[in-house]
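LAB NOTEBOOK - FOLDING QUEUE
OPERATOR: T.R.
BATCH SIZE: 2
PURPOSE: Compare the predicted structure-token outputs for two unrelated chains run back to back under identical settings.
PRIORITY: normal
REVIEWER: second-year student, initials M.K.

ITEM 1
FIELD SEQUENCE / FIELD STRUCTURE:
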Amino acid sequence: MLVPDRQSCLGCVYLNPSNQTNRGLSVIFWVRADQIANDLDIHLVETLIAHVRDSWPVDVIEFPIPVQSQRGLELLQRLGLEIGKQSNREITYIWRRTEDQ
């Protein structure tokens, strides 16, 4: 993610096919620390989910978050995503397409 003049990077998003499900994505993202105060991470995840829901033939989005990323864990929990797979290293939060979407 670059600022409009493309002179500075604000963060990054990696979209990969899911290893767990067909028609799924695995999303890894990061946002610069100085952008957290502006809630750029929240805006990023909300916008990404809305875009995928409205434009992609994807039924599941997985967000694996390292357990030491308290902000990431709180963010995805606050957005109401369900907890999927858990390990000592990461917790995967999941968005699922519903019938009304």
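ITEM 2
FIELD SEQUENCE / FIELD STRUCTURE:
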Amino acid sequence: MRNIDEIDIQILTLLQDNARMAQVDIAKAVGLAPSAVLERMRKLEARGAIRGYVALVDPHVVDQRMLAFVAVRTSAVGHDERIVAERLAAIPEVLEVHYVAGEDCLLLKMRARDAEHVGELLRQHVGTVPGVRSTRTTIVLGSIKETPRLPMTTDTQEAAQPAGKGV
């Protein structure tokens, strides 16, 4: 993203670690006045660099232990495929919907209570969306890493350079 400097990267990194971090603490960490941090955060929000603030809820606590990835093939193309994707995205248990390359058209990330619930979602919700031709489901047995945090670099010059160009 253009116009993101090293201090913005530091602010974004701190907020990814703890979105409830006080502005005064962020200001101390990046060496700015709290008012300057507030202004930067407002600009980052206005440009869409910060899309929102969320609480990361443990899925086990809310009985959503089962994680599944569902590859979806559609019979739709173009605008119709977008409609299929939007209808799938409207299913509350569907956390993510991605267009993918290869034989499949879409990849869904879903959370459910258990395998029976995944089957129910596939039969009663995913499979009933017009344009869904077939699905292939992968159940996750365990996770090593699952995070919404994006990797950040504080060397914006290096990140902005095309591949193969040295400093």
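REVIEWER COMMENT (ITEM 2): Residues 156-167 have pLDDT under 50 and may be disordered.
FOLLOW-UP: none requested
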